[in-house]
Structure formats: structure tokens, C-alpha cells
Specification:
By secondary structure, the chain is an alpha/beta fold. It has eleven helices and 22 strands. Strands 6, 7, 8, 15, 16, 17, 18, 19 and 20 form a nine-stranded mixed sheet that branches. Strands 10-3-2-14-22-21 form a six-stranded mixed sheet, sandwiched between helices. Helix 1 links the parallel strand 2 and strand 3.
């Protein structure tokens, strides 16, 4: 096998690895390794992303990452993409009339992180979403400044930026060996052998398996299966301008997409790392929740799919060098928010790899290295 050297080897070509590679390409030689035949085949390519600052009820840590990614989405670097990365979308939070206290609670949480929201009248709610069920019209919370995200354009922009910098993206390169000697990591793959002083483990659901190759203790990544369905709207209705709809107590949601509706029961079933596939019971739950919150009758599922949302125990990202393995850098645990925080996490990764600490705009919002460090999981 041939051997190639670099400054940074990134294992995993999803949104995490791609954003890190994009930033690190500005400061050194990068090799990005992807075990599938194309980057983003698993979680990234199956995301129904929406740009919202209210993720996880406005969690301050996640919010800091979202806020510091916003400028990139609104004005990406010249040549990054030919398509807008985001486009305006209305968003409403709903609850059945016996659970509207959850909307009041969310409204207060959003105020604390300076996210604008307001309650709609019944007439306003029906005008925005004509199919909203009567039981969910008692109180409806409208969140400001929401955007659809073009996940493909974002991911491809990062990858093209890596290539434009003269770096290598190598597909079908499953890692089969990983060891360190003399300050260099040797990564053996099905495509060749690669060496670098820094290895970035951005392998998604497989990060613990990659670490095991080097006898590095796991972070106990939890791949959680999430199911999505797509159904057609009534023939006499055009859903393209309907809002993104999030149920405030159980987290299921639906949204328009390509003239149809995408819905999820917000399931999170622990799964081994795999090419996730939906199960019939979760497809049924998705249809049930869509029917419960609207006037629709779901008679046919046009298509369904599943992806893995990868979390650690506290639900926060893991970004930083492993204390027991010099040069081994974790970039993991971004399930559910990896797309909307990719620009910030890419910059954070590049800064920490170079020993520079967190970018100023991120630390200014209160986020600390300790909150995302792998050390918190290995005490």
C-alpha cells in the first residue's frame, strides 16, 4: 500500500468532518477519509434541518453555537456556493389545549436568550396553517427568524472548499488500523496508509469503534435512530408556505418539503452504528401525530427513512484532544444540531487543534472549553 503524509487526517466526511476540514485546509495539509462511497451518506444526508435558536428549549450552550454560525449562513464566503444556504420559513410551536403551559414556559426561555417569539390569535394560526386541529389552536407560539437550510449546498460547499485548497477527500476508505508512534499517527485504510501528527475522529456513530482501533477509551456515543415520513398534502392545498410545526411537549414535528409534508415522531431508539432503517411502529407513530395535530387523514406514506442522531450522556458536543492519546482529537456528539452549528464547530475545531483556545465570538457568549471537552466524560 502507498503511504501519504499530512498535517491533519480527518476520519469521517459528514458535516462535522467536512466543516473541520474546510477550516483546517486554510492552515495545513488535510486528508479527509470517508468509509462510504460518498461523504454524508448517513446522518448528514438524511437531515431535515431547520435553522432555529430554540433547539432543546433554547439551551444556552447550543444557542451559542447556533448564534455564532448564523453569519456564515446568511453571508457565506465568496465562491462557497451558488445557492442560498438558508431561506425564510415560518415556525410555530403548538400544544394541546390542556398542555399550553409548556408554550408559556418556552416563551420565557426564549426571552432569556434574546430569541423573539409571540403568541398568535386563533385567526392568525389558522391563516398560517389551515390544517391545524382545533385542539391545538388554544395557544400557538410563533418564533421569529427561522430558516430552511440547504443541507446539500452547505455540505458540498465545505467539501468543494477542501478540494479547492488542494486537499484530498478519499472515499471508500474504511479505517482498519490506527496507531501512534514517534509523534505520528498511522491510519491504515482500504485505500492506503496515511500519516499525520493529528487525527480528528469525526466518524459519527462509529467514533468509539475508531477509538477502539487505537485502544483509546470510548466516550460512550449513543446512536439514536430517528424516523421520518413524507406524505402528500390534500389535492386542493399547497403546503409550500406552511410553517415548520413543533409540538412543545413531546417534540414531534412536521414541515413542508417539495410540495409535500415531512413528519417525525421524534423517536430516539438506541441503535448500533449502522445504515439505519425505519421500523413500522415508528412510521405509524409519525402518521398518528400528524393526524392528531391536523385535520389531515394519512392514507398513504409516500416514503420513509431513518437516520442516527449521535449523542453522549449530557447531550453536548465533544470537541478536543484526548488526554490519554496525544494528537487524537474528538469531534463527536452533534446529534440533532450538527447542521445548524457546523460553521462554529468547524472554527472551534481548527482553533483548538492549533492550541489557540475558543474563537472570541464563541467564548464571549459564555461557552467554555470544559463544557465541550472530552475530559468531562473521562474522569
Amino acid at each position: 500500500m502507498t503511504s501519504t503524509s499530512a498535517d491533519f487526517i480527518i476520519i469521517g466526511g459528514g458535516i462535522a468532518g467536512a466543516s473541520a476540514g474546510y477550516e483546517l485546509s486554510k492552515v495545513g495539509r488535510v486528508i479527509l477519509l470517508e468509509k462510504e462511497n460518498r461523504p454524508g451518506y448517513h446522518t448528514t444526508g438524511r437531515s431535515a434541518a431547520i435553522f432555529t435558536k430554540s433547539y432543546r428549549d433554547g439551551d444556552p450552550l447550543i444557542n451559542a453555537l447556533v448564534v455564532t454560525s448564523e453569519a456564515f449562513f446568511k453571508a457565506p464566503p465568496a465562491g462557497f456556493t451558488d445557492h442560498p444556504l438558508i431561506s425564510p420559513r415560518a415556525m410555530i410551536h403548538i400544544a394541546s389545549k390542556d398542555k399550553t403551559a409548556a408554550l408559556d414556559d418556552l416563551h420565557e426561555k426564549l426571552k432569556r436568550i434574546n430569541v423573539a417569539s409571540r403568541f398568535l390569535s386563533r385567526d392568525e394560526a389558522r391563516a398560517l396553517l389551515p390544517i391545524l386541529a382545533e385542539n391545538y389552536q388554544e395557544k400557538v407560539l410563533f418564533e421569529e427568524e427561522i430558516y430552511d437550510m440547504d443541507v446539500s449546498a452547505l455540505h458540498e460547499g465545505f467539501l468543494q472548499g477542501i478540494k479547492a485548497a488542494g486537499q484530498d477527500i478519499i472515499s471508500t476508505a474504511e479505517v482498519t488500523g490506527l496507531h501512534s508512534s514517534g509523534g505520528l499517527w498511522t491510519v491504515t485504510t482500504s485505500q492506503g496508509i496515511y500519516r499525520a501528527p493529528v487525527v480528528i475522529n469525526a466518524a459519527g456513530a462509529w467514533v468509539d469503534e475508531v477509538a477502539a482501533l487505537a485502544d483509546i477509551a470510548p466516550i460512550d456515543i449513543r446512536p439514536l435512530r430517528r424516523t421520518m415520513i413524507m406524505v402528500s398534502a390534500p389535492d386542493d392545498m399547497d403546503p409550500r408556505d406552511w410553517p415548520f410545526v413543533m409540538e412543545a411537549t413531546q417534540g414531534f414535528y412536521f414541515r413542508p418539503d417539495s410540495g409535500k409534508l415531512i413528519a417525525t415522531p421524534a423517536d430516539e431508539h438506541l441503535s448500533p452504528p449502522c445504515d439505519a432503517q425505519p421500523e413500522e411502529i415508528d412510521i405509524a407513530y409519525a402518521a398518528h401525530y400528524l393526524q392528531e395535530t391536523t385535520t389531515l387523514e394519512v392514507r398513504k406514506i409516500d416514503t420513509s427513512w431513518a437516520g442516527l442522531r449521535n449523542h453522549v450522556a449530557d447531550g453536548y458536543p465533544v470537541v478536543g484532544f484526548d488526554p490519554a492519546a496525544p494528537g487524537f482529537f474528538w469531534l463527536a456528539g452533534q446529534g440533532g444540531f450538527g447542521i445548524k452549528t457546523a460553521p462554529a464547530l468547524g472554527r472551534i475545531t481548527a482553533a483548538l487543534v492549533q492550541g489557540k483556545g475558543l474563537p472570541e465570538d464563541v467564548s464571549r457568549l459564555g461557552l467554555t472549553e470544559a463544557q465541550i471537552s472530552v475530559r468531562r466524560l473521562k474522569r
